[in-house]
């Protein structure tokens, strides 16, 4: 009885001592690690958190760019924004651009990655050609395609024998921005797909060949399922980036909204309100609305991904 009682007493004591030691090590690790992440947290707070909070405050005021004292007006800016047809038109243009770009860039990036992955001769050259446009600044890419789409001297109409007014007709203006974006940004998604393709085990294809699967069956039953996660990532990144389109749409139209305002995006409209109409408070309100929409898209993507993973289990 005595030995048993002593053992019963000693074991919890040893367990508590080990737990206390683990807690001490954990606290020490957090303290030391905190010094490494402190610079990032400081920059994040300075350039992300503070502007967001400042913009949220200004959205409830009638602040203007002149710096005069801002008066608190409550939800007036938000009420005006919800009734503003120009804001909804700009949001519709951004959504339309997103609907065109995301499927096209996903499919095109996948096809280019598969082509570069299977080509044997000059593989490095193909990869360089597909990725190189992504390294160009947005203004360079937009100015290049502005020249290519020029109805008089542009190569697009000349090569294909067309007389399409790409930049002056509202039916084609947004399509010109889409083509420019595809050429300029497909390299990023191409690189993601290429890295994912290189990570697929070769023995899966070898086993499929032995079972008599042709090339199409191998793509359909091995390649595409193995690329499911990277495809979800590409689609999510492209949706978030496309909704925020600004640079190429503005530059290709010489900093204007395009024919009949057909290429005015949400970001462009926000900047026009803030720096052209000098309504900083109203611009802050519509930027907060846009932030909420972007956050909702990101959260919806995370929710769908989590449900798919749970369903896969």
UniProtKB/TrEMBL annotation:
<feature type="transmembrane region" description="Helical">
    <location>
        <begin position="226"/>
        <end position="246"/>
    </location>
</feature>
<feature type="transmembrane region" description="Helical">
    <location>
        <begin position="172"/>
        <end position="195"/>
    </location>
</feature>
<keyword id="KW-0813">Transport</keyword>
<dbReference type="InterPro" id="IPR051393">
    <property type="entry name" value="ABC_transporter_permease"/>
</dbReference>
<protein>
    <submittedName>
        <fullName>Sugar ABC transporter permease</fullName>
    </submittedName>
</protein>
<feature type="transmembrane region" description="Helical">
    <location>
        <begin position="35"/>
        <end position="53"/>
    </location>
</feature>
<keyword id="KW-1003">Cell membrane</keyword>
<dbReference type="InterPro" id="IPR000515">
    <property type="entry name" value="MetI-like"/>
</dbReference>
<keyword id="KW-1133">Transmembrane helix</keyword>
<dbReference type="InterPro" id="IPR035906">
    <property type="entry name" value="MetI-like_sf"/>
</dbReference>
<feature type="transmembrane region" description="Helical">
    <location>
        <begin position="128"/>
        <end position="148"/>
    </location>
</feature>
<keyword id="KW-0472">Membrane</keyword>
<comment type="similarity">
    <text>Belongs to the binding-protein-dependent transport system permease family.</text>
</comment>
<keyword id="KW-0812">Transmembrane</keyword>
<dbReference type="Pfam" id="PF00528">
    <property type="entry name" value="BPD_transp_1"/>
</dbReference>
<feature type="transmembrane region" description="Helical">
    <location>
        <begin position="95"/>
        <end position="116"/>
    </location>
</feature>
<feature type="domain" description="ABC transmembrane type-1">
    <location>
        <begin position="91"/>
        <end position="301"/>
    </location>
</feature>
<feature type="transmembrane region" description="Helical">
    <location>
        <begin position="280"/>
        <end position="304"/>
    </location>
</feature>
């Amino acid at each position: 009885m005595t030995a048993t009682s002593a053992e019963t007493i000693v074991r919890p004591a040893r367990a508590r001592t080990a737990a206390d030691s683990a807690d001490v090590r954990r606290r020490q690790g957090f303290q030391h690690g905190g010094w490494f992440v402190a610079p990032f947290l400081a920059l994040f707070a300075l350039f992300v958190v503070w502007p967001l909070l400042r913009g949220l405050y200004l959205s409830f005021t009638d602040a203007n760019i002149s710096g005069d004292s801002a008066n608190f007006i409550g939800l007036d800016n938000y009420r005006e924004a919800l009734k503003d047809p120009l804001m909804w038109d700009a949001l519709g243009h951004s959504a339309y651009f997103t609907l065109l770009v995301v499927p096209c860039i996903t499919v095109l990036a996948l096809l280019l990655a598969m082509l570069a992955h299977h080509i044997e001769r000059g593989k490095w050259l193909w990869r360089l050609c597909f990725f190189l446009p992504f390294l160009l600044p947005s203004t360079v890419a937009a100015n290049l395609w502005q020249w290519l789409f020029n109805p008089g001297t542009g190569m697009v109409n000349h090569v294909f024998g067309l007389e399409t007014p790409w930049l002056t007709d509202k039916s084609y203006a947004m399509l010109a921005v889409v083509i420019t974006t595809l050429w300029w940004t497909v390299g990023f998604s191409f690189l993601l797909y290429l890295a994912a393709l290189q990570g697929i085990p070769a023995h899966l294809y070898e086993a499929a060949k032995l079972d008599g699967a042709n090339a199409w069956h191998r793509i359909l039953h091995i390649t595409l399922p193995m690329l499911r996660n990277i495809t979800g990532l590409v689609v999510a990144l492209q949706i978030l980036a496309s909704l925020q389109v600004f640079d190429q749409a503005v530059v290709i139209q010489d900093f204007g909204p395009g024919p009949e305002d057909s290429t005015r995006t949400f970001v462009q409209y926000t900047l026009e309100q803030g720096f052209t109409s000098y309504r900083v408070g109203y611009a802050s309100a519509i930027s907060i609305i846009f932030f909420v929409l972007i956050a909702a898209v990101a959260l919806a993507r995370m929710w769908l991904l989590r449900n798919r993973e749970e369903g896969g289990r």
